[in-house]
Amino acid sequence: MKKITLSIFSFLLAITATAQNFTWVGGFNTSNSFGNYGIQGVPSSSNQPEARTGAANWIDASNNLWLFGGNTQTGRKNDLWKFNTTTNQWVWLKGPNTIDDQGSSGTKGVTAASNNPSARDGGITWMDTSGNLWLFGGFGFPLSGTGLGALNDLWKYNTNTNEWTWISGDNTKDINGIYGTIGVSNSANKMGGRYLAASWVDNLNNLWLFGGIGFSSVNTSANNQNDLWKYNVTTNEWTWVSGSNFQSQFGTYGTKSIASVSNTPGARNSVASWNDGNGNLYLFGGNGFANSSAGSLNDFWRFNSITTQWTWMKGDSIADKKAVYGVINVTNPLSIPGSRSLAGSWVESNGNFFLFGGQGKTANTVGNVSLNDIWKLDLSTNNWTWVGGDSIGNKLGNYGTLNVPAATNQMGSRSRHNCWVESTGKVWVFGGQGYSFNIPNFTLYPNPTNSILNIEVKEQTQISILNILSEVVKTETINGTSKLDVSNLNAGVYFIQDAKSRKAIKFIKE
Predict the structure, then answer these.
(1) Angle CA(290)–CA(294)–CA(298) in degrees, nearest 5?
(2) How does pLDDT run across 260-319, given as a tens digit for each residue?
(3) Rounded to whole angstroms, how far apart are CA atoms 352 and 344?
(4) Is pLDDT of 95 > 90?
(5) CATH class, 442-509 region
(6) CB 419 within 8 A of CB 428
């Protein structure tokens, strides 16, 4: 039996929503590929971000796609990229091309060209009405101190000046929140360290954040939260709006479709979220706490930012529910996505909500699997429809030909990917962790090793050994089974990359 590897991606796909056709636009159709930074500030067709998961993303009024940081096979990043959807070119704009960088905070509230957030993944993002990009928290390296942890720094990026400003929060990790009085804004209020939370922007340009993994008012380790916060960009103040200031809380569901001041989703992370443009914020699933059980979730909630009340709209109040697919493209009130987390989401121009992939349940799986199913929610009927992808998990993709749309093209199963939707309705998907087109065509053993590394290939190829900075330290042409002497390498993490497939496998030199 061939082993299918769960891996990290760097390719970019475009989806024409009306025709449900996929187009492989850029990047490699293999996993764990290294990027090509090119010259900072200079767009090029050869530029490509390294394969990564959990990156922060935005889309601006000109339909440019923005990408920051994320977790790669070598370490965490704090590089900023922009993709021009007209020229199909990436440009590396800001941040280093190294890993695990602690950034440069500068002075709080003061913009400077040298400012840059630290390396992280799972950060929370917004774009305000002025086109500024906002970034909060994530899991990564603090601006000051050592080690990884939950961050609570808030940053603003000006797309015109290419400069970051550290707005608020701390330069250390794993900080508890200061909640103050529920519903009352105060300059002393602050969010604790947080990552994998949901975010929205309302009609009044307020930034909203729900749940995630992090620190409440008292906990000493990062756990699931269900607090809802609002940030006013004018006054620079946080307001605790609803939910608990304690960790790991079960939800209060109330009656389906009935709003209530006592309703609140349970503590959770990695939800899908949407904004209907009318002051209503929506979330689906995630991983956390249901009514009285914990696990993967498929409940769908609406929050009214005017009345500050939650409504349980659809789905189950217990965890780990399987999907009910029905017939593809046929709406059925009984159809519903299975419990899942780390999915992609977007809003269609006509107001329909879309959900893609993630990690969770199909109709038949017992445990969680990687998904590539696409679902549409019609808000007018509150019904889900399975509209694309597969009803079984862990599926390989079908890439087709670069830049050629086809009905047979299909994304492989994945989670922790990035999704954007243009004003034209075209959807873009980048990276994530899951299943690519190819199965590894070479193996290596023993791993770890202190001297000889055996490499088996199916056909003659050139392989390169790269260090964690993506620098080539050795190159050889091999065929069949070859013995590679790595005794002269320093101890540490390295990667073997095949020149033909661009596939890379990690090994450890002891």
Answers:
(1) 50
(2) 999 999 999 999 999 998 889 999 999 999 999 999 999 999 999 999 999 999 999 999
(3) 14
(4) yes
(5) mainly beta
(6) yes
Residues 6+ apart with CB under 8 A from 174: 149, 150, 193, 215, 222
Structure confidence at residue 30 as a pLDDT band (50, 70, 90): low
b/e burial code for range 201-215 (CB count within 10 A of at least 16 → b): bbeeebbbbbbbbbb
Rg of the chain's alpha carbons, rounded to an integer? 23
Both tokens assigned to 172: 């250390």
Rounded Cα distance, 280 and 202, in Å: 8
Calculate ∠ Cα 318-342-508, nearest 5°. Answer: 125
3-state SS class at 36: strand
Residue 247: exposure state from Cβ atoms within 10 A (0-12, 13-18, ≥19): buried
Q: Are 33 and 46 spatial neighbours (Cβ–Cβ below 8 Å)?
A: no
Distance CA 101, CA 110 (A): 21
Give residues with Cβ within 8 angstroms of 136, minimum separation 6: 123, 124, 125, 152, 153, 154, 155, 169, 191, 194, 199, 209
Residue 330 and residue 85: Cα distance in Å, rounded?
32
- Closest by Cα among 164, 92, 169 to 138: 169
User: What residue type is 399 in one-letter code?
Assistant: Y
Rounded to whole angstroms, the Cα distance separating 46 from 40 reads 13
Q: 107: how many CB neighbours lie within 10 A of its CB? A: 10
Q: Kindly state the tokens that stand for 58.
A: 């935005």
What secondary structure does DSSP assign to 53-96, as a single string? BS-EEEE-TT--EEEEEEE-SS-EEEEEEEEETTTTEEEEEES-
- Please give the C-alpha separations between residue 396 and each of 132, 366, 412, in angstroms, as whole numbers: 37, 20, 5
* Sequence ranges of the domains in the chain: 442-509
Prediction pTM value: 0.85
Tokens standing for residue 125: 């993002």
Residue 26, token pair as written in the block: 């850029």
Residue 444 CB neighbours (<10 A): 19
Q: What are phi and psi of 238, to 5 degrees?
A: -95, 145
Q: How far apart are alpha carbons 17 and 348 in whole angstroms?
A: 8
Which residues contact residue 281 at a Cβ distance below 8 angstroms, ignoring those fewer than 6 apart? 200, 202, 208, 210, 273, 274, 275, 302, 303, 305
